[in-house]
Amino acid sequence: MATKKSKGFIFTCCAFLLAIIAGGESLSLAENKRNCSYAVTIETTCTKGADTSNHVSLRFGDKKSNDIVVHHLDSKHVRKLDPLQPVVLDDVSRKPFQACNVDQFQVTGPCVDSQVCYLYLKLAGNDDWRPGFAQVRVLEGPRLSSNYFYFRRYLPRHVWHGHDVCDRELTPFGVQHKRKVFVKKPSTHF
């Protein structure tokens, strides 16, 4: 038969172990919540009428469902690059997505665990835009950076348009891609 002291000791030990386990879980959740920095490079082609003054949204991520969404790429975080040499020409706030320009945006979001393998752009507005290429560089882990995603056509408006090379499988009928469906996440704002 257990005495009152031994019951208290067992209870204290169990409470201590639960506190350690709970602390470890909150630590792992905090690690998952950390943010990373990305440099997103987008070229606008030199075709007449290729530039836009509309809002452009960006969505990219990895095959482990780390989805980063930027609802509005704006001039506050843009730098003009020389298309032939990736050297910064200026760091002045300016209008992005002009014809024959390469723009670089600084983006902060959840960290990816594997290489960035999909990128989508969405154009909102009335004028056309013809991007050339886009690339995402992960500043904390260059090996996780994306390859180039090529567009070279006018984007449709108000829909996500891009490339996904995450889940592809070689079959006797060619390369098959799984279709990515984006579900709107419930809002956490009260």
UniProtKB/TrEMBL annotation:
The keyword Cell membrane does not apply. InterPro entries: Embryo-specific_ATS3, PLAT/LH2_dom_sf. The keyword Ribonucleoprotein does not apply. Residues 1-26 form the signal peptide. Transmembrane segments: none annotated. It holds the Pfam family ATS3. It comes from the Eukaryota. Keywords: Signal. This is Embryo-specific protein 3.
